[in-house]
Amino acid sequence: MRVLFLTHSFPRHRGDMAGSFVLRLATALTRHDATVHVLAPATAAAPARDVIEGIPVSRFRYAPRALETLAYEGTMASQVLSSWRARVGLIGLVGAELGTAMDALRRDDYDIVHAHWWFPSGLAAMSASWWSGVPLITTLHGSDVRLGRTVAPARLLMRQTLAASTRVTAVSSWLADEAQAVTGGARPIVAPMPVGDEFLDLAATLPRGDALLFVGRLTLQKGLDILLRALALLDHDVMLDVVGDGEERSSLETLCASLGLEARVRWHGRQPSSALPSFYQRASALVVPSAEEGLGLVAVEAQLCGTPVVAFASGGLVDVIRDGATGTLVHDRSADALASVIKALRARPDRGSAQAQIARDEARARFGSGPVASRYLDIYRQAIAQPNR
């Protein structure tokens, strides 16, 4: 089976975290006799044509280099909403992606066009699918659904894109419910992304330390500010490792200083995926204070490392964690509630290790590359077989 991926975020080099779950799905599919070719926007940080972990990638130019800033950093929606310059760049991106997709469909026989995020790749893929007759799968990851929920013109485009798709998938049941509420259409199929093989084939477990861990982009949605305020309520010997970077780092460091936490917070910046298992394995617990996370793959990665997980009961995290069985969910999104749950976890004799073992077994069965690839191949086959496409 030949599959054409369209995405605005994809690793720019081996180990890059941008869109890494899209790469993981592509590599998982290739192990099941599928062929995947990826189309992604150009960037100065990556060549126009590349092969990453066996997956060919073609990156298309969509504007003068100075304006090619929309992709990869997770800020596309905010840029477009706040800048006419970015809106012009978005028009160029969708047009260039459509043209590149049509060229690819002319040259080769593809069985499936698979758009990751309805915005912006789904917009281009919708027309390319209509023109070529190749069935379209659109996968919702979270930020695209939030855009449709909060911006009226985007809501109309989202409805059109999903209605034109042969199949629509969402990475969590919460996200599927949100998408259905926004569009009023059919509920998307729930089909998560896979975790990396580095988490499935771990070496011997490292000695577990006593520090808490946060992994993610430093944005308001990720909630690190709440975790910092919770840390200030814990014993003074509790440390926090922060892995990630983003536009809120400066303000978060300022908050950290104002709370007197400089000596208790270690900022590690963005790390390659290969470095993450050692962070998870050494942590006493991963804390995920996100709001409306599409899925929360960092929680799955921690579970596969045998690390206890504490998270707010928000978004797709309720799919990942069975409260009290495979982790702990905090239902009041406040620093006080989060600190109270962390204190209770640290006071347990096993510090959550029994839950972590159950979580590891469940995560392997649900988020391993084999089960996820099989799920998507079934969806592809159903789309191809659908009459009157």
Describe the overall structure:
By secondary structure, the chain is α/β, with parallel strands linked by helices. Helix content is 45%, strand content 16%. It contains 16 helices and 14 strands. The strands form two sheets. An eight-stranded mixed beta sheet has the order 3-4-2-1-5-6-7-8, with helices on both faces. Strands 11-10-9-12-13-14 form a six-stranded parallel beta sheet, sandwiched between helices. β1 (2-6), α1 and β2 (35-41) form a beta-alpha-beta unit. α2 crosses α3 (84-107), α3 runs parallel beside α4 (118-132) and α12 (297-304) crosses α15 (353-367). The longest helix is centred in the first third of the chain and has 24 residues, at 84-107. The radius of gyration is 21 Å and the shape is globular.
Concise summary:
With 389 residues, the protein is α/β, with parallel strands linked by helices. It has helices at residues 20-30, 76-82, 84-107, 118-132, 143-150, 152-164, 173-183, 197-200, 224-231, 249-258, 276-282, 297-304, 317-320, 335-347, 353-367, 369-385; strands at 2-6, 35-41, 49-52, 55-60, 112-116, 136-140, 167-170, 189-190, 212-215, 240-243, 265-269, 285-288, 309-312, 328-330.
Highlighted features:
single chain, 389 residues, alpha/beta, Rossmann fold, eight-stranded mixed sheet, 16 helices, 14 strands, 16% strand, globular
Corresponding CATH superfamily of the largest domain: Glycogen Phosphorylase B
CATH topology value of the largest domain? Rossmann fold
CATH class of the largest domain: Alpha Beta
Computed over alpha carbons, the radius of gyration is 21 Å
Total helical elements = 16
CATH architect. name of the largest domain: 3-Layer(aba) Sandwich
Shape: globular
The low-confidence parts are none
Can you summarize the main beta sheet? 8 strands, mixed
Got a strand count? 14
In percent, how helical is the residue content? 40-55%
Order of helices and strands, N to C? Answer: EHEEEHHEHEHHEHEHEHEHEHEHEHEHHH
What number of structural domains do the residues give? 2
Mean pLDDT: 92
- Cα end-to-end separation: 18 Å
The proportion of residues in beta strands is 15-25%
Task: Provide the structure class.
Answer: alpha/beta
**What is the strand arrangement across the widest sheet?**
3-4-2-1-5-6-7-8
